[in-house]
Amino acid sequence: MNRFFGRFAFGPAIVALVLLGVGALLSWLLVIHSLEVKSQAGYDVPRMVLFYSTLPRLATALLAGAALSLAGALLQQVLRNPLADPTTLGISAGANLALVVTTLFFPGLLGLGRDLVALGGSAVVACIVMSLGARRGFSPFSLVLSGLVISLWCGALSAILALLNERYLVSLFIWGAGSLAQQSWVIPISLLWKTAIIAIICALVMRPLSLLDLGEGTASALGVRLVRLRFIVVGGAVALAAIVTSAVGVIGFIGLVAPTIARLSGARRPQQLLLWSPLIGAGLLLIADASIQLVAGELGEFLPTGAVTAIFGSPLLLLLLPRLKVRHRALQMKERARSWAPAGTNTLAVALCLLFVALVVAVFVGRGIDGSWGLPQAALFGEIIPMRLPKVFAALSSGAMLAVAGVILQRITGNEMASPEVLGISAGATFGVAIAVFIFVPGLAGQLTFAAIGALVVLAVILLSSMRTGLAPERVLLAGISLSAMVDAIVGVLSSTGDPRAVLLMRWMSGSTYGVDGRSAATVTIAAAILTAAAFLARRWLDILPLGPSPALAVGIPVRKSRFLLFGLAGLMSAAATLSVGPLTFVGLMGPHLAREAGLVRALPQMAGAAAIGGALMVLADFIGRTIVWPYQIPAGLVSALVGAPFLMMMLRRKS
């Protein structure tokens, strides 16, 4: 009897029942009005809406939440990675991109089934992520880093296609944000039997999956075939994410939050985790969707549930984060045994030369009226160059600041995935600008102030939630992911209100330099010069702090004060850069990695190299976005992801 109750795990059971109970109560409040309406002659419209729209939508919320949570629990268990879920590994983004590309270029393939198209995109992304992770021992950070890079690439390409083909993809773009609106029972019934089949298949491998808790070596000695087990379990998780994405779009965060809550509430065994995570996820998504319909009323059909879900899940994860016991630490990459001279000097010189070439090309090369490439005509030279220079220098300054901020964050947190974008600092700056635009409508100085406040608030929350654990990389990353998702969701909800200012905000979020003029470019450039110089002056701190608190104190460095100042400096740089190129660049992650992989190990050369690489990436992104689909323009922030992510993936292919 004790053995049975020990396996039952009352903690997650209580959490699941409470969540499902709250969801049921909200659902009852939603449908009770329709039940009280008496039938009249002719069509009974309220009851038709109830039986063919409201109830199928609630059922879809339950099934989608359960499927995504089961997928996240499977990935976390088989990969020994508490950060794994369909969103962080890029699986959902791959399915979404496959559907966008197929809808636009190969609509005939949709006749084979949306599930197959989504499954193909998810499978391709999963194979890429697994192959990159295998080269570094399936390190949790390597896997999630690869997934985030690929997810950004897929998301940027989807956004570019939507911008260029808005009249064709507008409905798909709304659906991609995670819409649970239904007009029949077709989708919930389809989700039910497909999820059930995949769950039964995964249940058959429960015993070998449980043996992984003993370690891979012990599990192999007991007869577990690790490669086949990973293939089956990851394949099941990919299939679950694909069928949900093909049915209702991308609903992020549920697959990460639900298993985390189950684990924190007492689910210790794999059986407990895989049993209670789907129920917890179903309750979370049901609460989110029912709340949307109750609060928004008729407008609930237009609010993306996938975005609103993060508003509910993020605070809950932040509250529970201090109790999370992370068992699987990242495999630390060995630093290259290179000194700055001469290899580092040569690398830095090459980076500066590439930056110079990028500046020359971006300023002087363009396309004429007939679409031909070349230099500006002599008569137009004096008019075109002054228009290009502010945009080029704004892109250069912003890219350099994001890259240097990434170096600072990675060094003081010991987290190779830390960057302004991943930790939510850029999202905080975006939220600050959104408040400025929607409420106060100040000028450039006011927007910069609000962006800085938003970035620093997000940074402070991350520090407070992770300080007790010594800034453990896993907790810092989880806090950053949750805050970033929450802020992006709030901005997404604001943008879905139909306010004309939302168009300006969305254009700015995509990383466009359209609105940059001489004044704003000068402001960003001056800010970059001052803040980057301050970062260079702190090079001694950045060289010693990664060694640990004891060595830093031994040489007289005030650890708390220096960390606080460096975090603040990174926040200010992120806020200033986000004003020009938006929050979607990912340069803050790519620049430091590319500089380190090129052999720049010490703080000063790495910051200089990262600044040159980040600046060159943004300048090239702005140039490509301005010319590649002439006469149309693509936002530089989106293009920078397409330009830089492949380089980072090539670097990740190399073993540590």
Could you give a short description of this structure?
With 656 residues, the chain is mainly alpha-helical. It has helices at 2-8, 10-36, 45-79, 91-105, 114-134, 140-164, 166-176, 186-203, 206-211, 216-221, 226-248, 254-264, 270-296, 305-320, 340-364, 378-413, 425-440, 444-466, 473-495, 500-509, 518-537, 539-544, 549-554, 559-581, 587-597, 603-627, 636-652; strands spanning 366-367, 373-374.
Keyphrases for this structure?
656 residues; two-stranded antiparallel sheet; 27 helices
Provide a descriptive summary of the structure in words.
It is a single chain. The chain has about 650 residues and is mainly alpha-helical. The protein is built from 27 helices and two strands. The chain has helices at about 1-10, 10-35, 45-80, 90-105, 115-135, 140-165, 165-175, 185-205, 205-210, 215-220, 225-250, 255-265, 270-295, 305-320, 340-365, 380-415, 425-440, 445-465, 475-495, 500-510, 520-535, 540-545, 550-555, 560-580, 585-595, 605-625, 635-650, and strands spanning about 365, 375. A two-stranded antiparallel sheet has the order 1-2. Strand 1 (about 365) and strand 2 (about 375) form a beta hairpin.
